[in-house]
Amino acid sequence: FFFGGMMSCLRRTCGRRARIDVSARQHHEVKRFDDAVRSWDHMHLGLRGTNARSADVESRVEDLLQKMTIEEKIGQMTQVENFGVEPGDIAKYHIGSVISSANGAPVDNTINGWYNMVKGFQDEALGTRLAIPIIYGIDAIHGHGQLLGATIFPHNIGLGAANDADLVQKIGRATALETMATGIQWNFSPVVAVVHDIRWGRTYESFGEDTDLVQKLGEAAVRGLSSVNNLERIADHHQIFLLSTAKHFIGDGATSWGSSEQNIKCTMANGNKVDKVYMLDQGDSQLDVNTLRQRLLPPYSAAIRAGAMSVMASFSSWNGQRMHAHKELLTDELKDRMGFEGLVISDWDGIEELRKTPKGQERDRTAYYHSCVDAINAGVDMAMLAKDWLLHIDVMKEAVQKGDIPMERVDDAVRRILRVKIMAGLFERPMPDASLRQHVRSPAHVQLAREAVGKSLVLLQNDRSALPIAATARIVLAGRGADNIGMQCGGWFIRWQGMLGKVTPAVRMPHNKWGNAGRPTGGTSILDAFRKHMKSDVDYVVGLPDNSKRWEVAVVVIGEEPYAEGMGDEPNPTLTEGDVAALAAMRPRADKVVAVILSGRPLIIANHLHLADAWVAAWLPGTEGEGVTDVLLGTHPFQGRTSVTWPQSADQLPLNKHNTWQGQALFPFGHGLSL
Question: From the candidates 347, 388, 569, 579, which is the catalytic residue?
């Protein structure tokens, strides 16, 4: 990429790389942005000052800032990976933040193991000259997904189908409590992207394709994560419970197919090692300024109003210009016009991506220097670094000394970081109260997750009144998702790409003074849930059924194996051959067949509808399979409605409520039957 008024982007189309010249359009769009943005201010009336600075906070910020050396300031602007530092590094380099990556759980993956790990980093920071605490971050996007035994809630795509802001706010608070119980006080959530193309591997992290829906639920998530009530407030300036992050600013869910240039090798949940060429994730949002303004920006405005004090820059580009170097959006729009007073964090090595070093080669220092200058000057306040963080610190210091990064820009970034830490109460209480561990997988949280699952289920089809299922019916469970908590949870569960099977061990937590003696950890698979609530025996078939047996109802649980980010970019999201075979095998062996889909997006099923009487979209429900049986057995009604358009074929994609000319949907946005 070349940044500025004239630029071009490299695009893949139909599996071949083809260069398209977007320089003229980019020049036009940047000019339109500068001209049009003056008219945007009406969108932000009442927004500026919602994160109002208090005199006490600003006085403390300035007092600390005046005492800080350039090394201490640069350290505050640096976030390092927990496994990438040695003992003493936090203090020596004045590090401001530590992150557990999506594979960053401690060896002792327990509440105590996490808490002690974070405390070790925090103790180092508090032993420095100014005793500025670190803030520890993690992606807890559907509960504390990396913690064994945590409550895992439905991914956002399911919560979008539930469309219940109060429910989302409660889930935000439950997630905050379980995350803080492990010592972590910064969550890189929620995703407030508006999905344009369900082939995107992060579709399930969004609430859906409708701006108003995403805005409403994103705001609720932030309130749940970050709001402080009077009983929780430890000081007048304590305004952040857990630091939430609106991401990824901006356009991550609206990229064009074939516009990404990312290529990642990793191990998937099934153990297969995959070399994946991304097609949508981290690509280019080729949208005009009015679409950006009207469709993508409002959820960020709402999140900031609700109290989000961190925003993550997107890997993606807007009309060829990378967001990590987009001053017009990161600074002129987000900070100046929207009045955002929090901090902007880069994505995972997002600064390096501006001028990416080819795989297998050492990072080019000169290229990284210019990328760092571009990103910091554009408005990135803190760099999230997976590797070579010492090089980053060295480059930052050189750029400041040369004047390529003005000291005013550094001071602005550090002010924002200190402001957030003070508002989060970190100086008074650097580590969360250990009593919060009573909330991890508490009965209240399990019940909340179960409620969320039930409300998120969408009844797509119900021929021959296959649902509800009588509790006395002779039934069989089949399909690879029937007894698979890993499939229920999807990506960002234990590991980045998720895991398969029951995963979370059915062990018991040790007795302690907070009253969780003997409380089982883990979750409930859909099979276990049926066996618990049916009044008749429940059979379970792996592979082909016994031809000598016949059932009144067969429940076949099918769908997607876990994936995350661009590893899930898929040209034709559909059922596997094994899924189709499982349905076909049960068709002649049961009076009625119910298909339950576990997936992070709509799957192409039009040609397979005849294989089942009822079709249910269960999305990625998390650990509480009883929420599925609550609805399938008729204890609770179907309430969910699709928050994304369900296409008939992959040829229609991208298909959403904004481009219905692509053809008739199999199930339109907002579809959902009732019993």
Answer: 347
Give the whole-angstrom CA distance, residue 285 versus residue 291.
11
Place of tokens 């189309």: 13
Average pLDDT score over the chain: 90
Which amino acid appears at position 628 of this protein? Answer: V
Give the whole-angstrom CA distance, residue 128 versus residue 142: 35
All residues at 6 or more sequence positions from 374 whose CB lies less than 8 Å from its CB, including other chains: 3, 324, 325, 354
Digit-coded pLDDT (tens) for 132-188: 999 999 999 999 999 999 999 999 999 999 999 999 999 999 999 999 999 999 999
Please give the full DSSP string across 616-629, using - where no structure is assigned: EEEES--SBTHHHH
Please confirm, yes or no, whether 565 is among the known catalytic residues. yes
Strands (E) located in 440-544: 458-462, 475-478, 538-541
Instruction: Determine phi and psi for 604, rounding to 5 degrees.
Output: -75, 110
Phi, psi of 9 (to 5 degrees): -130, 155
How big is the CA angle at 89 (ends 88 and 93), to the nearest 5 degrees?
125
- The model's pLDDT over 55-82, given as tens digits with 9 standing for 90+, comes to 899 999 999 999 999 999 999 999 999 9
What is the b/e burial string over 167-190, where b = at least 16 CB atoms within 10 angstroms of the residue's CB? bbbbbbbbbbbbbbbbbbbbbbbb
Kindly state the tokens that stand for 593: 């067949």
Q: How confident is the model at residue 507 (pLDDT cuts 50, 70, 90)?
A: very low
Whether 204 contacts 190, CB under 8 Å: no
**CA-closest candidate to residue 525, choices 461, 618, 430:** 618
Alpha helix segments (H runs only) across 462-513: 485-489
> In Å, how far are 72, 106, 124, 331, 422 from 65, measured between CA atoms?
9, 33, 20, 21, 13
CA–CA dist 101, 79 (Å, integer): 11
- pLDDT at residue 186 in the model: 98
Number of alpha carbons in the 13 Å side-chain half-sphere of residue 572: 8
C-alpha to C-alpha distance for 193 and 202, rounded to whole angstroms: 9
Whether 381 contacts 310, CB under 8 Å? no
Q: How many residues does the chain have?
A: 675
SS3 of residue 557 by DSSP: strand
pLDDT at 509 over 60: no
Q: What is the C-alpha to C-alpha distance for residues 271 and 480, in angstroms, rounded to an integer?
A: 16
Angle between helix axes 407-423 and 55-67 (nearest 10 degrees) is 130
pLDDT in tens, 267-315: 999 999 999 999 999 999 999 999 999 999 999 999 999 999 999 999 9
Q: Distance between the two ends of the chain, CA-based, in angstroms? A: 53
Q: Which residues pair with 19 in a beta bridge?
A: 10
| Residue 135, φ and ψ in degrees, nearest 5 | -125, 125
Evaluate the CA torsion angle 206, 212, 217, 221 in order and state its sign. Answer: positive
Measured distance CA(568)–CA(201) in Å, rounded: 4
Q: What is the 3-state secondary structure (H, E, C) of 277-311?
A: ECCCCCCEECCCHHHHHHHHCHHHHHHHHHCCCEE
Average pLDDT over residues 339-359: 92
Catalytic residue among 197, 560, 565, 570: 565
Helices 365-378 and 389-402, interaxial angle, to 10°?
70
